[in-house]
Amino acid sequence: MAVLGVSFLVNFALLVIPIGVTLGILFGIDAQRSAAGDAPIYTPQPSSPVSGGNPDGGGGTDNKLTTQMYCQKSYGITPDTKGQEFTLNPNQWGWDASEGGGLCMNVTTYDNSTYPTKTTAPAWSITWEYPQGPESQPVHAFPNVLVDGGVFPATVESLAQIGLDVEWTYGVGNKSASTTDETALTTDTVNANVAVDMFLDKDSTSAGNSSKALYEVMVWFADFGAAAQPIGLADGAVTTEVLNGTTFSLYYGTNSLKQNVLTWLASETTDKFNGDLLPLITKLFTLNNANFPSKTDYLGYFAFGSEAYYSSDFVTFSVPKLSIDVTTS
Ligand SMILES: *[C@@H]1O[C@H](CO)[C@@H](O)[C@H](O)[C@H]1NC(C)=O
Ligand SMILES: *[C@@H]1O[C@H](CO)[C@@H](O)[C@H](O)[C@H]1NC(C)=O
Ligand SMILES: *[C@@H]1O[C@H](CO)[C@@H](O)[C@H](O)[C@H]1NC(C)=O
Ligand SMILES: *[C@@H]1O[C@H](CO)[C@@H](O)[C@H](O)[C@H]1NC(C)=O
Ligand SMILES: *[C@@H]1O[C@H](CO)[C@@H](O)[C@H](O)[C@H]1NC(C)=O
To answer: Where do the segments described as Disordered lie (predicted)?
Structure first.
């Protein structure tokens, strides 16, 4: 537990910036944030013995893969790696245990800390169930993998690419689904999205603070259920952009924290994507809108995950393949 305490401290700065202001939620947010440092409600049990000294995975000498399950409310884990560092956050920021339901996150780490590429993230999945929340605060969690290791903050103009190569599935039940069956998700009233979440600001520190940053830019690869709607959907799309065959439409609005929220929504469920996301930010500069970011602004936060609203049964979001390759020009 001593070592866990250390990882808790290391990750605390990340935890106090949970996501979830996307649907305009001020109510209770301070309470949620101060709750972000809660002790684990469940002591992680390795599903196979962890080699090396790091309970977050990696740091060992053999060539095995280790899957470990984490059911804590919020604190993230940062596996040892010889490449790009990632932190996996359960981030149940809008959930109170008294509501029932919950979430567990499985993370598969390489004992030798050497992933297939320098930018490959650990494979991970979440299994969750939450009851329907109030309209004022429908999101229970944003479990995600965060690009860590000092890549951000960086000004947008200093970036050459934000390469994202991802494959995911969403399915009913406690096992990873091989494909996403949208009809089954509808039957189980699953309300969730699959999204990249980014924050930008002209100030480099504020850019890393999800409640303070002036701009939130999201990229939604899927939205399931009526509750999962981008802010500004009713106003219609501002513009569209095609990235490697996927068409994204831009929606704009502000949330209750008065942040400008820009959401690029894929025209259909996109469970495999390989491309550079940077054009979805630079396109904003060309739209001559004073409420949109500019190229000298800092990108301070980049995470990929699923906003979990509610579901009548356990569902599993699985990310077997993920690489995020950010390079500067
Ligand atoms: C690390 O382990 C993986 C998985 O077994 C293996 O493919 C890879 O070759 C190993 N890398 C090194 C440097 O030992
Ligand atoms: C399904 O997973 C959840 C969360 O991980 C757990 O609470 C529940 O007991 C599991 N159900 C079964 C049938 O394994
Ligand atoms: C997560 O890990 C637990 C414990 O090893 C296992 O029972 C469960 O099936 C795993 N879930 C998924 C979705 O693979
Ligand atoms: C983020 O900004 C909020 C609002 O200004 C502030 O209360 C909070 O302390 C900041 N968080 C961090 C980690 O600096
Ligand atoms: C487009 O997607 C294909 C299929 O995943 C991939 O091989 C190719 O590299 C991608 N192209 C770009 C420009 O990212």
So the answer is: 39-65
Is it the case that residue 36 has pLDDT exceeding 60? no
Query: Domains in the chain, please, with CATH?
Result: 8-52+63-328 (2.60.120.180)
180 lines ligand 3 (CB under 6 A): no
Token pair of 241, please?
């952009």
pTM for the whole structure? 0.87
Question: 48 CB less than 6 Å from ligand 3?
Answer: no
Is 314's C-beta closer than 6 angstroms to any atom of ligand 2? yes
Q: How far, CA to CA in Å, does 202 sit from each of 123, 148, 152, 210, 225?
A: 33, 20, 13, 14, 35
> Which residue would you say has higher pLDDT here, 128 or 18?
128
Give the atom of ligand 1 at the shortest distance from the alpha carbon of 64.
Answer: 5
Mean pLDDT, the chain, whole residue set? 86
Give the β-pairing of 315-328 and 123-129.
antiparallel
